[in-house]
């Protein structure tokens, strides 16, 4: 969640002081999940930011890719994902892995 708050703060600050004709863009380079117990809050925060402005974008990183494959039913990826932060991510959503 820290990264989303930081991005929002920087976007607001840059927007207030940036007088260039090019608008400020914030691009988060993935890996917003599998980083501890705040994964669900991080995803929600990023979703709120992307819904509230067209100047914030999140790219899917390798952890998001692994999560998507695991949640679509790839059991091999699911087992691997659990050991690389997936367990904490699921718990952050209230799911018992």
TrEMBL record:
Instruction: List, in alphabetical order, the Gene Ontology terms for molecular function in this entry.
Output: hydrolase activity
Q: Which PROSITE patterns match?
A: SER_THR_PHOSPHATASE
Q: Name the domain of life.
A: Eukaryota
The segment(s) forming the Serine/threonine specific protein phosphatases domain are: 59-64
InterPro entries on file:
Calcineurin-like_PHP, Metallo-depent_PP-like, Ser/Thr-sp_prot-phosphatase
What is this protein's record name?
Answer: Serine/threonine specific protein phosphatases domain-containing protein
This chain's source organism reads Tanacetum cinerariifolium
Q: What is the lineage of its organism?
A: Eukaryota, Viridiplantae, Streptophyta, Embryophyta, Tracheophyta
């Amino acid at each position: 969640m820290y990264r989303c708050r930081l991005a929002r703060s920087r976007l607001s600050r840059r927007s207030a002081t940036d007088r260039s004709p090019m608008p400020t863009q914030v691009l988060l380079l993935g890996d917003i999940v599998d980083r501890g117990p705040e994964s669900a809050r991080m995803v929600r925060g990023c979703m709120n930011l992307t819904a509230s402005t067209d100047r914030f974008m999140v790219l899917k990183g390798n952890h998001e890719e692994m999560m998507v494959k695991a949640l679509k039913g790839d059991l091999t990826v699911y087992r691997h994902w659990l050991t690389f932060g997936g367990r904490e991510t699921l718990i952050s959503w209230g799911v018992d892995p």
